[in-house]
């Protein structure tokens, strides 16, 4: 008959100070009283939290009132500009008093042999941290809802961008007539009219643009003929520097509808141009143009769509190559970074700590930073992205692989070593058979990560669809950006499915 041995409880150690002294010590240094009452963890948390809150509050008050010198004015202005800081300061005072009272209770309970403490104080600490985060994060729920209506159209273009994916080539008829500015003693010749061909005559044939002070320029009378009767005609200009722009008049773009015979008449004012002419002296030639849509071709994939496909393929290749190079270089390193394999003697332990330290340093630097460094070395493009992701993948995979090695069953290792096998034979016959499934799983996971990261490093010139996405966002072309976002999302979903299937086979 087996007897159960009961583990005897060690007697609780009493507080090092009386409750009154614990309160006094916590009044001097918040949390010190709890530490002296042997509530070590509670005291350290309260001390660290109070110091952090005080530092953050001081920093935010200084930022809000940094234009002033006097400390009283700084605090006053900070509370006026950000009333939530005043609330946080009041709560910090309440927390300070609460910590003092809690130190008294902690010492009293410790003397009574109790170790149960209320959690209300810790929840209060979290609440104060929440308010500090709210202020530092500049959260404004009102702005979120008030500006949501303005953002909905843009979000809609991103979520459903497929109008931009289809393009219909347009054939546009452009009839241009030259005019001279300014007028000279020699009269500028009028355009020649050809029978049965679209034409446009402009009178007069020279004039002055609208002045900077909004003084109207020369009024021109346009007469056109032989145009299509079922399409509007847009009026465009081409200035002396070769810049083309569509003219507005009265806040609206100028357009005219031809009559049943294809003729039109309209009067326009010569517009103002901010960019000066390339000629400092003498007359320059401008063009006034009549543009009409002749036909729309068959639907075809747009340039944005084809570019997105091309760059998405480039992104997948970047992730694939970075993963491949990372695996090749991480496998030798992972055995040197496994504690259970490198604990045989002092020499192998030194190697273990050196390799681990290097891997931790490399892994702590984000791929985005490595991409910036790589673009400096090799320039913009996918090669920089591959280098950046490869460096980070080596460190990340070597760590994951080494932890998989450290988690294997030590029985086969001891059995192999008992036969007199050397280090290499132990790896081959006792370690590798156990690590294949986790290695495959980690490799697939890293490929997934590299695909997603390659879209981000594209923002700093690392190639792939991220570089294209950045350009479209800067140009406010949200439909084109939406196509890129859809391709990224679909690719990640497919890769997630594929990686799940591969991992399932190696379980």
TrEMBL record:
It is found in: Cell membrane. One of its GO terms (cellular component) is plasma membrane. The keyword Ribosomal protein does not apply. GO terms for molecular function: ABC-type phosphonate transporter activity. InterPro entries: MetI-like, MetI-like_sf, PhnE/PtxC. CDD domains: TM_PBP2. It holds the Pfam family BPD_transp_1. The keyword Transmembrane helix applies. The chain crosses the membrane at residues 16-37, 43-63, 84-105, 117-137, 316-338, 368-391, 455-473, 479-498. It is a multi-pass membrane protein. Keywords: Cell membrane, Membrane, Transmembrane, Transmembrane helix, Transport. Residues 312-499 form the ABC transmembrane type-1 domain. Belongs to the binding-protein-dependent transport system permease family. NCBIfam families: PhnE (TIGR01097). This is Phosphonate transport system permease protein. It comes from Anaerolinea thermophila. The lineage of its organism: Bacteria, Bacillati, Chloroflexota, Anaerolineae, Anaerolineales.
């Amino acid at each position: 008959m087996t007897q159960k041995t009961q583990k005897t409880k060690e007697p609780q150690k009493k507080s090092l100070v009386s409750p009154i002294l614990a309160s006094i010590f916590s009044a001097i240094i918040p949390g010190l009283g709890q530490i002296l009452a042997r509530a070590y963890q509670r005291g350290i948390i309260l001390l660290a939290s109070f110091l952090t809150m005080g530092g953050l509050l001081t920093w935010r008050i200084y930022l809000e009132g940094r234009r002033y010198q006097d400390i009283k004015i700084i605090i006053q202005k900070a509370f006026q500009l950000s009333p939530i800081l005043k609330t946080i300061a009041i709560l910090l005072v309440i927390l300070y008093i609460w910590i003092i009272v809690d130190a008294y209770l902690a010492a009293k309970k410790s003397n009574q042999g109790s170790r149960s403490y209320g959690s209300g104080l810790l929840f209060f600490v979290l609440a104060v941290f929440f308010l500090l985060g709210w202020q530092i994060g500049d959260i404004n729920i009102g702005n979120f809802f008030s500006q949501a209506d303005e953002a909905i159209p843009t979000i809609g273009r991103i979520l459903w961008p497929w109008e931009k994916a289809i393009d219909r080539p347009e054939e546009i008829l452009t009839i241009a007539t030259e005019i001279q500015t300014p007028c000279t003693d020699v009269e500028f010749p009028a355009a020649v009219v050809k029978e049965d061909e679209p034409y446009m005559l402009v009178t007069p044939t020279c004039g002055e643009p609208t002045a900077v002070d909004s003084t109207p320029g020369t009024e021109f009378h346009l007469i056109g003929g032989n145009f299509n009767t079922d399409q509007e005609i847009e009026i465009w200009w081409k200035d002396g520097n070769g810049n083309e722009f569509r003219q507005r008049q009265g806040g609206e773009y100028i357009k005219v509808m031809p009559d049943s015979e294809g003729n039109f008449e309209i009067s326009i004012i010569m517009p103002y141009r901010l960019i000066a002419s390339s000629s400092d002296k003498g007359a320059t030639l401008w063009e006034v143009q009549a543009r009409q849509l002749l036909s729309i071709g068959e639907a075809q994939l747009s340039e944005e769509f084809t570019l997105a496909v091309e760059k998405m393929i480039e992104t997948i290749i970047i992730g694939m190559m970075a993963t491949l190079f990372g695996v090749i270089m991480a496998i030798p390193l992972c055995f040197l970074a496994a504690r259970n394999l490198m604990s045989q003697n002092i020499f192998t332990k030194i190697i273990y700590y050196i390799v681990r330290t290097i891997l931790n340093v490399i892994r702590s630097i984000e791929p985005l930073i490595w991409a910036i460094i790589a673009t400096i070395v090799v320039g913009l493009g996918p090669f920089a992205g591959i280098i950046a992701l490869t460096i980070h993948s080596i460190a990340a995979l070597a760590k994951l692989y080494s932890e998989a090695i450290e988690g294997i069953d030590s029985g086969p290792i001891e059995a192999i070593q008992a036969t007199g096998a050397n280090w290499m034979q132990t790896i081959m016959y006792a370690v590798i058979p156990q690590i294949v499934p986790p290695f495959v799983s980690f490799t697939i996971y890293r490929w997934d990560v590299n695909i997603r990261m390659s879209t981000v490093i594209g923002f700093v010139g690392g190639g792939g669809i991220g570089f294209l996405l950045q350009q479209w966002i800067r140009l406010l072309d949200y439909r084109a950006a939406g196509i890129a976002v859809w391709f990224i999302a679909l690719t990640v979903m497919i890769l997630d499915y594929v990686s799940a299937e591969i991992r399932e086979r190696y379980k």
